[in-house]
Amino acid sequence: MTPDDARQQEILKKNQRTLMWLGLVLVFMTFFAWGLVPFYRMVCQKFGVGTIPQKPDPTQVSKGVGSRVVTVRFVGMTNVGTAARIEPLVQKVDVKVGQTTEVDYRFTNLSDHVLVFQPVHSVVPARADAMLHKLQCFCYQQQTLKPKESKVLPLSFWMDDKLDPEINTVTLQYTLYALHPERPVAHKS
Amino acid sequence: MSTQSASVSHAPETPTWVKWLTTTDHKKIGIMYLFTAFILFLMAGLFALLVRAQLLSPDMKILSPDQYNQMVTMHATGMIFMAIIPMLIGFANYAVPLLIGARDVAFPRINAISFWLLPLGAVMMLSSFALGGSAASGWTSYPPLSGGFFSPGVGVDLWILGLHLLGVSSIMGGLNFIVTILNMRAPGMTLHKMPIMCWAVLVTSWLQVIATPVLAGVITMLLFDRNFGTSFFRPEQGGDPLLWQHLFWFYSHPAVYIMILPAFGIISEILPVFAGKPLFGYLAIAYSSVAIGVLGFTVWAHHMFATGLPASIRSVFMFLTMLIAVPTGIKIFSWVATLWGGNIRFKTAGLFAIAFVAFFLIGGLDGIFLASIPTDVQLTHTYWVVAHIHYVLFAGSMIGIFSGIYYWFPKMFGRMLDERLGLVHFWLTVIAMNVTFFPMHILGIMGMPRRYFTYLPQFTDLNRLESLASFVLGAAQLILIFNVIKSLRSGEKAPDDPWGGNTLEWTVSSPPPDHNFDVIPTIK
User: How crowded is residue B410: how many other Cβ atoms within 10 Å of its Cβ?
Assistant: First the structure.
């Protein structure tokens, strides 16, 4: 074996070893990519960002009613292609921080089919999201409406006194999406 | 002896085209990468010209709104995944083993598979035009626009599957180059002695290996959402469209560096040769590439400043993004210092390298405005972003690629390219490029949104100017094609070292022998 051949053999072995290590990096990055999904959900639920549905947090309780007043506006939107209507029964309320307030939303199924949905919330400004504590909400579980049925569902909440002092108005919006596969609707359109 | 000769001469000669199609030689694969990617560059360029034709006036009817969206989507997808990245991989393939004194890459057959996945992926994506229309949701494919409701055809599905093939190709290429550069350098060539292009390819390869699995994951999630009822990005079932943006940009911001770092490497090789001086700040340039590669993974959310992320998070990403200006600035200063006081030869390859420094700088500076939250929220989704990306990817990556073509063509084919035609190509490209892309900054400030097939009448003059300049830019590339064909047929024969190069490829014949080096060189 010439010195050149010996060097080639040595390089070949080194190459296979390095490739094996790089293969492990690839496997790790693949798990990392898919692992980011539950990690993202966790972060969103913890900090109240994104559109991941929040769950009621029993540890959050009002420490009493304060004197500061905040205006909360309510908005409802239906996703494109969904034959339904969502409307808040009041447009806005002025609430004191720490005070439990209840408002109602009306949901109407305009179609001839059963409608299954779970409204998705969105708060503007976004940093107020974590300060708006919901005690009862139609957004916590799936809802069902029979064909042409209309239903009024309650939402109760209190506003945290830690809300940024610069914020005087908070807008709470719910979007109604039908919980049906998207494809058939899209193909029809 | 005569009997042996007779038996050899009777053996059927393998046709040249079969040799090329079955080759595992890094030089041939590099040339095939460049050839295929250049064809796809012309195709993606044609899509851009159709877009610009539609924008000649607000009421043009060249494309329907949906066709316009398809052209915009496939222009960007084609340029990024089928043209720029593969062309740079082509240069890496051709040059790296020669630069480090190796006979080939570490895994030549994997290298061949990497290449063949490129045309396969391209055909997969482009076949959507024959199957009801291509993806039309932009190269970023944000859900819900890319979801089943708004994009019901197979275009997005084929886009995803094609991207998977190109992604696998990219990962395999990255693995090959990391192993090659780490293990196969000539005796005596330490990491700090290897040519700067190899540093750029090494960092790029790491980016490909680390980031591409995330892209593979996120596009698979979209495929599942579209076809199998999952809800990674569908808010109605507990998903979040913003998750797509986080994961997509976790890959796609490093992808920007995959597209620019090898171009940095190319011009870092070329500038010293045409300045007649050693590269200024070798270690600074090498380690600034590493810094850019690492920081590139920490800035993805600057693409999401307008999505309602909390201010504290946005501020961190703004700071990290600004930080990237430091290693990038180090490179710019080093290149300028390399040119400073040099005996500059204004050959086409050198001119393109100098133009890279000048115009990539614009892409860096206008990026600062997008990195800064207060200006970004005004400029995001406007033509400012289009200007920025084209100053980075055309004035940067493509100009770097042109520089590389003029520099290594004599080595690849043993023929010189025609300098006069090269100069015409250079001046037309550089002037038309600036007239096409610079006014987009102004349109961005005026508030013209990107990705629309029409616009307000007050934007007409600048749009018309850009469109006309883009046609000149497109036509200028025909000069390069003509030059290549003419030179291959009857170009002046290239000597081994036509430029007075500093690296090992210039020590062997033009074109190099199959095995590159008769004796593996030893570096002192």
Answer: 25
